[in-house]
Amino acid sequence: MNSLSLPRHARLLTTACLIAGLSACSDEPPVVQPVKAVRTLVVGANAANSVTTETSTRAYPGEVKARFETQLGFRVPGKIVSRLVDSGATVKRGQALAKLDAADFALQVAQTNAQAQLATAELKRFQDLRSKNFVSQAALDSRIAAATSAQAQAKLTRNQAAYTTLTADRDGVIAAVFTEAGQVVAAGQPIIHLVPNGDREIAISLPEGDISRLHVGAAATITLWSRGENAPVMTGQLREIAAAADPLTRTYAARVALPASAGNLPVGLSATVRFAAAKDEASSHAIPLSAIFQNEQQMAVWKVGAGETVTLVPVSISRYAGDQAIVTHGISAGDRIVTAGVNLLAGNQKVHAVTAVSATAAAENTAPPLTAKAPAQPAIPATATTHSAQ
């Protein structure tokens, strides 16, 4: 029978069946994204990844220092004939500390005084001659200059003679003595270390990882080792942080100012300085560095959500501590994050959590595979095969 003689609805039904059969033969089965095997961590589930107040409050060993310390030395060279103070002595401003041999300086003073007297006498004679117009004004001006120079030179030598006695420039304590009687010293060479009375500070060293979380003016608590564990805690403020790191230790020198009530503490006492945790660090969490995924310029972590699917969540990192990162924003206690395999994931991908591999298992190569077995591909419908054969 000719197909043209079939009813219209029969022809349409035949055409639809043919199209369905061809589509079944040409369509490929849908691609199923494999399930990745990853290691996960519940944030805040134990003390290892929860930053408490004790761990976020860092303690730094330090030493008591005076805010202003002076290295005293003679302003002229010479031989020390006497040292009048010892280390630890309390001195007053203007008190003599050491003396040089002043014999040569006395001779210089006598010489310059004689020259000054001679210049003054000649100036007086020339002034009388000038009043009678026996000498020119230029000659008188020359004598005036010579007399002024001689008087200045005489004053200079008297000052240098006075410099042979080293005196304290302020009240304080002698912290160290660097020379002894009989030693020949140069001008400016340190002779005595004077610690003035007044402000006291704690000198500490800050690692470069803590520079970003501390600022000048930050509150601190100080305890002195010499006063025992039950000693009262003093309060202070971070006064300064060095602009450059020490080339050897790679730490930054810092000073913590003590209150005036601390008094004149002995220089050199050992102390411990603690800074209060920042507000954003009170709820911080420590996570392994392997959990951090760098998305362009933003740090992020993969968070496991409902249905065992992962979502990339941006986080803020305040600092690094060993093999951990201290995260202040982006995650909360109870969140489950991926700690291994972060570079193999994609958004909304399903994951399968595996247990950590022990050292023994790793040595025996019995670690579980990195990826879980993907589910079986769906079978091609039997109807599609039948139509294809037709």
Distance between the termini: 20 Å
CATH topology of the largest domain: conserved putative lor/sdh protein from methanococcus maripaludis s2 fold
CA radius of gyration: 44 Å
Which CATH architecture of the largest domain?
Answer: Beta Barrel
Name of the top-level CATH class of the largest domain: Mainly Beta
Please state roughly what percent of the residues sit in beta strands, choosing from under 5%, 5-15%, 15-25%, 25-35%, 35-45% or over 45%: 25-35%
Estimate the global geometry from the Cα principal axes. Answer: elongated
Mean pLDDT: 80
Helix percent reads 10-25%
Structural class: alpha+beta
Quick take:
The protein has six helices and 23 strands. The chain is α+β, with helices and mostly antiparallel strands.
Report on this structure.
This protein is of the alpha+beta class. It has 4 domains: 36-51 and 282-363, conserved putative lor/sdh protein from methanococcus maripaludis s2 fold (Beta Barrel), CATH 2.40.420.20; 59-67 and 199-276, Beta Barrel (Elongation Factor Tu (Ef-tu), domain 3), CATH 2.40.30.170; 73-101 and 164-197, OB fold (Dihydrolipoamide Acetyltransferase, E2P), CATH 2.40.50; 104-158, Helix hairpin bin (Helix Hairpins, Orthogonal Bundle). The protein is 23% helix and 31% strand. It has helices at 8-26, 53-56, 103-131, 137-162, 359-363, 382-389; strands spanning 36-42, 59-66, 70-72, 78-83, 90-91, 96-100, 165-167, 172-177, 184-185, 192-196, 200-207, 219-224, 234-241, 251-257, 270-275, 285-288, 293-295, 298-304, 310-314, 316-321, 324-329, 336-340, 351-353. The strands form 5 sheets. Strands 1, 17, 18, 19, 22 and 23 form a 6-stranded mixed sheet that branches. Mean pLDDT is 80; it is low at 1-5, 50-55 and 356-390.
